[in-house]
Amino acid sequence: MSATNRRAVVLTGGGARAAYQAGLMHGIAKLCPQLEIPIVTGVSAGGINACCLASHAGNLQQATASMVAAWRSIDLPQVVRTDAPWMLHNFLCWSARLATAGRIRLGSRALLDTAPLRRFLVRTLGSEGELTGIARNIEQGRLTAAAIATLDYRTGQTVTWVEGREGTKPWTRPDRVSRVSHLSIDHVMASAALPLVFPAVRLAGGWYGDGGIRLMAPLSPALFLGADRILAISTRYLRSREEFEVPEIAGYPPPAQILGKMVNAVFLDVLDRDVRRLKRLNDLVEKLAPDERDGLRPVRVLLIRPSRDLGRLAAGYEHRLPAAFRFGVRGLGSHQTKSPDFLSMLLFEPGYVRALMEIGETDAETHRDAITAWMQGGACG
Length: 381
Fold this sequence. Notes:
Elements: E1 7-11, H1 19-31, E2 39-43, H2 45-55, H3 60-72, H4 84-99, H5 115-125, H6 132-139, E3 145-152, E4 158-164, E5 176-180, H7 185-191, E6 201-203, E7 206-210, H8 220-224, E8 229-233, H9 241-244, H10 255-286, E9 300-304, H11 310-314, H12 323-331, H13 341-346, H14 350-366, H15 368-375
Helix pairs in contact: 1-3, 1-14, 2-3
């Protein structure tokens, strides 16, 4: 790997929508067989993909092929428990807790049990603890650093766990810090722990959850790690003005509609704002003479997003969910909206996942010229 290669990929969250990232990266690997990305950062479900890429022993084509194979094998029971007796028991326990002002505390610590997800990650990443493949790739010079973002429920700070080359420096800001660590299954589980829905994970003496909750600057880990070219992959479709004018619901908004908008605002919209900030800063920096930049450098960023609305697409797959789970999400009104965005995050249904990966591969071909320009040529066939 060239010493001047400081490319990074930033993978945001989105639950099941992260299958789109797997398809897109696989498509990019086909277009650019010699591509090396030494800095990999992720959050939530994007953190799972990030660790798949960072820990794999093969090249990018092999790593993305393995990631796609893992997504093709997944279904909802491999992410959360979906059997009706357990779901009913947990619902009754939470109802008792609410009805008694918390005096009765039975059942799990969250609405869903993610023990199946941990087993899936152990199989996929090949480890029950530390992800030794990351350390191996760093030692071999193929990887500079991998980073996974979480939220510390004790302090409210975003904590980014970084495994990198010797001398990797941590950073500190009032609302976000980094910690150098050997990344593990626990870090991945914590980063993907959707608040209240998935249980928090204990790390370094504290309880941590989904890193996307307060990650106001999703590009910052890659920037702190020295990236000069960033590929950012969003799972949010950008609607046109005409599409925004078409109502998604009729009548009073059901909980599923409200939750969907909250999820988009908290987890997905922030990447667009961060990319806009970086591009504006680039414009300012490039107007300055090199000796006047005070350490600032222009960073080329390429943002790729789905060409289709993944929320609207989810509506066509709801009927394939396990009966007990489908009953629960329908109780939230998922069938009353044309774009059940909240459902799409939990829709680990094989048909939906494959559709997202196919869209991702197609989008890679569509963005061939932009990807080649981002690469500075030479690595794309």
